[in-house]
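Researcher: Here's my situation. A collaborator sent me these components and asked whether they could plausibly form a single complex. I don't have experimental data yet, so a predicted model of the whole assembly would be a useful starting point for our discussion.
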Amino acid sequence: MSVTASLSYFSRTALNGIVRSPFVHVIAVASLAIALVGFGLARMASAQLDRLMLALAGEVEMTVYLEPGTTPDKMAELQQALSQRTGGQTRVVSPAEALGRLSKELGDPGHALTSLEENPLPWSVEVTLPPLAREPEALKALADRVRTLPFVTQVDYGQEALERLTAIARALKLGSLIAFVLVFLTAIVVVSATLQLAIYSRREDIEIQKLVGATDRFVRAPFLIEGLLQGAVAATLACGALWAFAFFVGPKLAALFSFLDVGGPRPGIDPRLVLELFGIGAAMGLLGSVVAVRRFLRV
Amino acid sequence: MFHVTKAYPGDPPVLVDINLDVQKGEFVFLTGPSGAGKSTLLKLMFVAERPTRGQVLISGRNVARLRESGIPYLRRNIGVVFQDFKLLPTRTVAENVGFTLDVLGTPRELVRAKSLKALKSVGLEHKADVLPPKLSGGEQQRVVIARALVNDPAILLADEPTGNLDPRLTVEIMDLLCDVNARGTTVVVATHDASLIERYQKRTLRLERGTLVAEALGHKAAALMA
């Protein structure tokens, strides 16, 4: 049989199969779609967490405190060294400026600071870090290196807060991964069980095909096409559901978590996610069919 | 078949040390009471079962050692008339007959034409588009025969092919099988109908409790069954 004739025969048989037992196929598509929606939500949540982390880390500046009596020349030298080492922008803050900021931040009680005879605050250099240096590990290493520079007394970059945030983000990511794996495994079991039901209703066809000389490949082909179709339909449904989620629920969620708003576009369905959904859907449909049809081939 | 034994775990053997030689183009009756092992013997021939011991050679190939992937190609040369018909109730008569040709990759138009021709040979051309459950037992039997013959197999195995037919149809079907045999197809018919054996005067093998107990021609064989 020519390739086109085979394809046409197998497709016809696959479509007949779907038409003959639509309910079973609807269940298979639904369970596949649920798994894919779970995957999509996990991916969107993970993307959102990444953006949140990046935004929070972006607010963290490194403040390098200097020894009293550091001369302006030395300060300029240090400033240059810091720029080179961190790759970020640097700015020298005088004790007077620092005191002014502190007093402003404290509000009314801050006025008391202006009456101090001597400014207790040291000269400092503020460093705005480039994105690459914002990972907690990288920041820590950088701070350690900066501490060894001459005239540096202390380095502050909100270490504890950043580390805690990173730990929370990691736990959330791990949680979503575990949830996804659970949903995925459940879906595979449900899909393969459902497909077995669909194939069970056609076991007579398979038996007779085998008895009149059909190869396993010939018997399997229509079921694989069915699996692929189911995967594609489920992926389309999942894309629709995720788009609806991002469009209708997304803004409400953003309002709910406005204190975490990081600006920029919220994660929606990008072409990569669509490709992943179709790829995983097709793979799951195929895998489910292969597993399900196996036990009916022994005639 | 050489020293063929078939046994299922925990049960007494179904076939014991069968030695049997069917020549190309021959017509052979396989007879014996129910449960004697006739159907199992036929199943060994189209590899629906494998022997526990012994060799089964078909066209010079030892099918007892045939790999799984080789079975479909062997079956394409063997037409089988199943005792329980094995017709698909949701497909038309013509589609059931064409099933064999679909598997062989025959083009769609040719499948229909050949199916109709096969149905004509069993007198059921007019029922081509009917679903099998709408047919009588005898008609279903004839559809099965048409399906077994549609691709001109080298060997035809029939398990009680006239079991559900009235005497007139029985003769018609047997004549049909004789015609097929006359065109060169090897035919093996399992039956417990003594009148057939007497009427058609063919080589007859008698099985009892899994053992080949007698081999005779026509009248003698029928007498043995009495």
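Model: Some features of this prediction you could bring to your collaborator: Chain B has eight helices and eleven strands. Residues 167-182 of chain B form the longest helix (16 residues).
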